[in-house]
Design brief:
Blueprint lengths: L3 E4 L3 H14 L2 E7 L6 H5 L2 E6 L10 H11 L3 E3 L9 H9 L3 E2 L4 H8 L1 H10 L15 H11 L3 E5 L9 E3 L2 H19 L4 E5 L5 E9 L5 E13 L2 E7 L6 H17 L4 E10 L2 E8 L6 H8 L3 H9 L16 E8 L11 E2 L2 E3 L6 E5 L6 E2 L6 E9 L2 H13 L2 E3 L5 H7 L3 H5 L6 H4 L3
Parallel strand pairs: 1-2, 1-4, 2-3, 4-5
Antiparallel strand pairs: 6-7, 6-8, 9-10, 9-12, 10-11, 11-14, 12-13, 14-19, 15-18, 16-20, 17-19
Helix pairs in contact: 4-5, 7-8, 12-13
Amino acid sequence: MISKVLIANRGEIALRVILACKELGLGTVAVHSEADRDALHVRYADEDVCIGPALAKQSYLSISSIIAAAEITGADAIHPGYGFLAENPHFAEIVGECQLTFIGPSPNAIRLMGDKAKARETAKAAGVPILPGSDGPVRTIEDALEVARTIGFPIILKASAGGGGRGMRICPDETTLQSAYETARSEAERAFGVADVYLEKYLQHPRHIEIQVFGDTHGRVVSLGERECSIQRRHQKLIEESPSPVVDQTIRQRMGDAAIKLCQAVSYVNAGTIEFLYQDGEFYFMEMNTRIQVEHPVTEEVTGIDLVKEQICVANGEPLSVPFGEFHLRGHAMEFRINAEDPVTFAPNPGKIREFHAPGGPGVRIDTAAYRDYVVPPHYDSLIAKLIIRGKDRPETIARARRALDSFVIEGVKTTIPLHRAILDDPRFVRGDFSTRFMEEFEF
């Protein structure tokens, strides 16, 4: 039985896990780099251990340091959060070999779904719709050209070992593909250590819709509805919402059933997300994230389920607490990622927060580890807060979001608050009429 959890992460997600543990009556251990000595997750945890210098590869990515911290403090479980080592199958294996509980899926599931090309093959075998493309990585430019000519341009090259837009290139014709192939492979190797890329048909105006899934050790897998993630820049999400403006209960059921099929095919346990592209009434598997997502609070708000507590309970061998029967979402929710970035250029803007005032009122939730006088370090992701809004429907959620963004005060660093406020006034966003190319056409 889990009694003490070490959180192998930082920032708002580390704090989020700590709060969930406190509700469950579990002890907590925070690990931190030298740059995060004054971080909130360090203050709120029962114990803390410094695991290295500011650079992530010497601290938050150091498996030996994290395992040592667990052994020193007597932690019996590790929650990886998201990012860093969360989808590293070797880390999950080491945790198990050290007789610790990994609060996440099995190493085999992480490894299989982490290879995007293999995940695509697995989805196809499970009967989940996929886009036309290559059967696995394309090893030569000649192979890539042959596949592209068969399915037709435009196509997209994707890194087999990762996501987030790295190693990804859109190719409208043969000339572009010839010049982009080696560039994509080089970028993939730098980012993920594996140069393999695969090829898919490119959809011109898709929506990015993901399904939250959860499996337990008793063989049950459930779908907890969708999140609309089409508002993104360079494949990095900015705003997420649930339910999607274009998904009805019939489509939701079809997508959920497909996601469950894939999870069952890999014996998936714990929280995960199946990402789909959706266009013209059809959806296609894109990838699976084998961890808790940044945007998980959106699902929490429309389901009433604490996903982080559920993760811990499932890792403890308990059955899912989700009721049996047809599942319906309640109300509407949106999440706005508040980053320490220039809202025009998106350049990171680390520094000291001179003033910090979070909004409140009905339907407003803030997940953050920031505070007045906190110094946003330059070494990590620029996310400093998540503004989560809930309303009885989409119009009320938008109205509350406008009110909350107008009263959200962060001074000392530039943030994306003005950008979010402008998006909420865009008629296309208000109508729910947008695709993943929204930001390409957005004027700010």
